[in-house]
Backbone:
């Protein structure tokens, strides 16, 4: 199966989002960042990491359209990190 450049961009942002969601969950669980500051830290870090994915997308895939560079996979990225941290939190609270 061969992935198109657009699919690779979405996959890159999915992996970045899941990884970041796991990191945010661990930071909250281990109290590395206080729970009071975790929300601000998480949203600011998410924006910074998304900017890094823009750079990586340009470096690896050289998209010809600005949409592919800046917006392709945006919802996937944010949804994956939010859902990852939420689901891990819910699983931990059940145990």
Residues:
């Amino acid at each position: 199966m061969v992935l198109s450049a657009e699919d690779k961009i979405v996959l890159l942002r999915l992996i970045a989002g899941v990884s970041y969601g796991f990191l945010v969950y661990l930071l909250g669980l281990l109290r590395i960042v206080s729970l009071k500051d975790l929300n601000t830290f998480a949203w600011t870090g998410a924006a910074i990491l998304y900017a890094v994915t823009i750079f990586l997308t340009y470096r690896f895939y050289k998209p010809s359209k600005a949409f592919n560079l800046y917006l392709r996979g945006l919802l996937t990225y944010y949804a994956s990190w939010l859902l990852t941290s939420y689901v891990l939190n819910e699983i931990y609270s059940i145990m």
